[in-house]
Write a structure and sequence with these properties.
This protein has 257 residues and is of the alpha+beta class. It contains ten helices and eight strands. Helix 4 crosses helix 7 and helix 6 (111-117) crosses helix 7 (122-135).
Length: 257
């Protein structure tokens, strides 16, 4: 089964592959590695991704990340569902309070560094949320999503296991996806029932999803170098700040190659 799964930065098509390869994070950094390792969620992979792929033990050694031990203890709620809400609200507040000029933006680094400096970059805050969930005792992983009907419509969120089910949690926008009855709504749920996603956001954003494992205890395996904005993203962010006059479109010729 695993040999037929679609993996890597090209899973969303050539335009998005070019976008991922021009990511502003440092070469060989943790965020680059996680996108290179992502597995596309579809019929050929769903059994694996929602089965043995992610270790539900969280692999976290208490005391190994003291800053996050303290933080997770403060954010832990009466129930696991409350804890998820608290962590997502904490992360959303970091994003809401970040007002950094493009040229001053810093990408990547350790989760401690990201919290200390603040960020509004979805990839960085998703990694913070993923770590916080695990320190709080909840298995989690990284999701990259893409609305391939539009240019540059990628997003990064977390998926967390609680109440015996995987559920998508978006720390950038402060959204915890749940069914009407309150049960966690997984990326597979959002992909197959757009009504669930549309209650919170545009369902098309979850039409294409890539999943990567990221374990708190594996910190020593990754490069946490930081970086500044590159020319590719400088242009994209400039157009975004101007609210895309002429409409959202590929501006680097991604659709022409």
């Amino acid at each position: 089964m695993t040999t037929t799964m679609n993996k890597g930065v090209g899973i969303f098509g050539k335009q998005y592959e070019i976008m991922f390869r021009n990511d502003p994070h440092a070469a060989d950094s943790v965020d680059r590695v996680l996108t290179e390792q992502m597995i596309k969620l579809d019929g050929s992979s769903v059994e694996y991704l929602y089965g043995p792929y992610t270790d539900l033990s969280t692999r976290y050694t208490p005391g190994s990340r003291l800053f996050f031990d303290t933080l997770a203890a403060r954010l832990r709620g009466r129930t696991d569902s409350d804890t998820v809400d608290n962590i997502i609200l904490f992360c959303r507040n970091i994003v809401a309070n970040c007002d950094t000029d493009t040229e001053e933006m810093i990408f990547g680094g350790t989760e401690e560094e990201i919290v200390e400096r603040g960020t509004d970059w979805c990839t960085d805050i998703a990694r913070v949320a993923c770590l916080l969930f695990q320190v709080a005792g909840l298995p989690s992983r990284i999701l990259n999503t893409a609305n391939t009907k539009f240019a540059y419509s990628g997003h990064c969120v977390a998926e967390v296991y609680y109440d015996t089910k995987w559920g998508v949690a978006d720390p950038t926008n402060g959204i915890v996806f749940r069914h009407l009855g309150g049960a966690p709504a997984s990326a597979w749920d959002l992909q197959n029932d757009r009504r669930v996603a549309n209650r919170f956001t545009t369902g098309e954003q979850y039409a294409s999803v890539g999943i990567s494992n990221y374990y708190a205890n594996d910190k020593g395996l990754y490069n946490y170098a930081t970086s500044r904005v590159n020319e590719y993203y400088r242009a994209v962010l400039k157009h975004s700040a101007q609210q895309w006059p002429g409409g959202i479109r590929w501006i680097h010729g991604e659709d022409q190659t």
